[in-house]
Q: What sequence folds into this?
């Protein structure tokens, strides 16, 4: 299937590792020109070299998007380079280790900024050009937790807000062939994250989870998420506005 994204310019945040890396490799393999954003210069450059084997020129932006000037700095650098993202994959997300439901409002706002606010700021900058050009794809990373409500309250609440944002934004821009959607991963193995720590620290608990709550019997990998994202970035997704696609192994 021709996804129709060859030579499209695709921006991926959190691109240096895990799901973001897998998505970046997948889109590059489809012929997209990648704008790779993360905090780690070394990991970004390694990724850029890996996906440049086809001769396409990709770009790295070493920026901490959680800094107060992070999104504005990224926008400025992209514009200074004369680049025009036609696809944006908002891969940033997480709990920032804030698990207490009675955490301060400031802590809740930080979690919201990571999961919703940064994406909204980038959309405000780049979506108007997509509307003008009558083509654009915005893919956010949601989570299984918005249906199970398991996990840390600030994180789950932020992702529920993100789902509402996706649904409402999509209704505003779909008529311009700007398709806003999301993938909602379940239990994905990523180094340094929850399930990797669980495997190392409490393998019995992980086995219990796999046996009781995950019918596929295995954790997902970043490579399991990338194809779904690539489809949502493609011409084939033109009737998928507002879709939030579960890629969760039927987990609960």
A:
């Amino acid at each position: 299937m021709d996804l129709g994204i060859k030579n499209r310019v695709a921006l991926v945040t959190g691109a240096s590792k895990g799901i973001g890396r897998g998505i970046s490799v997948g889109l590059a393999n489809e012929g997209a020109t990648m704008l790779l954003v993360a905090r780690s210069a070394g990991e970004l450059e390694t990724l850029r070299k890996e996906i440049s084997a086809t001769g396409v020129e990709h770009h790295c932006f070493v920026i901490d998007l959680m800094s107060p000037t992070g999104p504005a700095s990224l926008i400025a650098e992209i514009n200074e380079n004369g680049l025009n993202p036609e696809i944006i994959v908002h891969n940033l997300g997480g709990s920032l280790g804030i698990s207490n439901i009675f955490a301060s409002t400031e802590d809740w706002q930080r979690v919201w900024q990571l999961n919703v606010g940064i994406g909204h700021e980038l959309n405000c900058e780049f979506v108007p050009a997509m509307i003008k050009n009558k083509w654009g794809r915005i893919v956010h990373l949601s989570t299984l937790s918005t249906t199970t409500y398991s996990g840390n309250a600030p994180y789950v609440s932020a992702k529920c807000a993100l789902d509402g944002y996706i649904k409402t934004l999509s209704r505003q821009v779909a008529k311009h062939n700007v398709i806003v959607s999301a993938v909602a991963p379940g239990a994905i193995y990523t180094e340094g994250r929850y399930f990797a720590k669980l495997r190392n620290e409490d393998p019995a608990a992980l086995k219990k989870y796999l046996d009781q709550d995950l019918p596929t019997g295995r954790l997902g990998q970043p490579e399991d998420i990338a194809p779904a994202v690539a489809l949502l970035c493609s011409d084939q997704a033109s009737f998928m506005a507002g879709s939030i696609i579960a890629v969760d192994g039927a987990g609960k």
